[in-house]
Amino acid sequence: MLLTEFGLDNSFLESDELTSKSTNRKLLDLWKDYGVLVFGNHQNPDFILEKLKEKISPKVYLEWRDAFSDYKIINLTKTWDTFCNYNDYKEIVELKDIFKTGITEPITLELIGQLPNYISYCSHSKFEVVEIDDLDNSVNFKLAKKISTKDIEYQDDNEKIWEEKFQSLSRFTKNIVIIDHYFLRNIIEDKRKGRQTNVEYILEKLKLNGKRYNITIISLGSNNSSNNYNDIISEFQSINSSHLKQTYNKIHIISCNSNYFKVLAHDRFIQFDDYVCTLGKGLDVFRSIDTPQCTFSMVKEENSDIRKRINLVHNYKHWEHEFLP
Predict the structure, then answer these.
(1) Class of domain 4-145
(2) pTM value?
(3) I need a labelling partner for 83 at 20 to 30 A (CA). Which of 169, 228, 260, 283 fits?
C-alpha cells in the first residue's frame, strides 16, 4: 500500500520525545508523503494541538496545525483504549480494521511488549505498533516508501498492481487526472478486439470505494471528424449508460495533438488529488494483455510539474467532451 493508515495511542501525548523538533518533523513528513491519520470518536484535534503546544516550539506547533488542515485525515465513529490497558496483544491487533500502524510512546511500547502474544509486526494483518521516536523502523511506512519507486514487473497481475500501487490512493481521493498519449487509442483497439478496456477496469475498481470521482483524461484522440473520435465518444456514451456511471460526477476528455505529448507529456501520469504517479508505460498496465515492465514513481504534486502540463493543455487541444451521469 502506498498510503499507511495510522492511529495515535491515547498515551501518545505523554511522550518526552515530542520535545524534539526532529521527532515531530519525522512524523509530519511521513504523514504528508505516505500517511493517513485515523481519528477515533474519542479523539479531538483541538485537544491534541493544545497539548502539543505545551511541549513543542511555536514553529513546530504551526507545522502541526498546518498538517491538521492540509494532510489526509479520516474521522471514524469507532474508539480504542490506551494500548497499555489491553490484557492481550491479540486485542490490540484487532484494531487492524481501523488502522495499520499505531503510534505510541516508549513506556507504553515497553509495557505492551510484555503482553501475551506480542509480535512487533503481524505479517498476516499488516498491523504494528511503533514508538514516536522510532518511526524509521515502521514496517508499513518503509514499505510505502519502497513501493513508491518500485518498478511494475513484466506480467504483474492487474489485481496486484491496483492493490499495491493505487487502491489506497483512490480511497482517499476525489479528483483523478490521467495524462497518457496512447490511452484513448488503446481503448479503441481493445474494444474492437472484444477485450475489457483499461478505463472499464479502472472504473470497476473505483466503484468498489463507494464514492464518486471527478475524472479528467488528457490523451491523443484524433480530430473530431475521424472514425476514432466517433468510437471514443461511443465507448464513453456506453459507459455513461452503464452501472459504471455510479463511479463519477463527470468524465472530462481532452484530446490534444501530438506536439503536446512530444513537448510536455512524453511521460505518462495518473494523479490522485495531490499525489502524482509517473508510469513508463502508462495505463497499459491495466489492459487485458501481458503487463509490460515499466518504471513507477509517486511524488507529491509540489515536487512535480504536472500542474504546468495541465494548465497548458488548451494550447494543444483538438477537442474536449464531458460526460455527466
Answers:
(1) alpha beta
(2) 0.92
(3) 169
